[in-house]
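Hey, can you fold this one?
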Amino acid sequence: MQRIYTSLPLGAFDSRFSQFLAETNNITLFTNPFAFPDDKINLLDENLQLEIIDLKCNSVLKSKFAELPVLPSADDMIAFWRILPANEFEHLRSFAQRYICRFGSTYRCEQSFSAMKLIKNKNRARLTDSNLNVLMILATTNLQPDIDKLASNLQSHKSH
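Sure. Predicted structure:
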């Protein structure tokens, strides 16, 4: 017998995921501004409308975008948005920067939660908040401490 979970009414499901539908235009604009439908340009902010039209008419930038792989990585997309001249595409660049930040912050949250799960397990349940904070910083940073230099700065304690 197959069990079907129906704890949430369909309306609640729709309301929770309606934000994804609202983001469709932004996703299209971010991932391929040249494929953004002309009939939806008027739905964008006024400043974005003018810049997207200018971008779509710019053959140099169109060819740069065409050089990207079929499935571009995040680095490829960031590199493309960086080559847009800031004086001509101020609002589009700002839009792209805000959109890129969404992915980075989500990744950092997931990374931090995973690190905390590893650090604070059942064997280390008595960890203080300050120790957990320090361990979280160490687990989520890209910095590599110079242990030898730090150790050489410490004065060793001599027994009496």
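The mean pLDDT is 82. Let me know if you want another pass with a different chain boundary.
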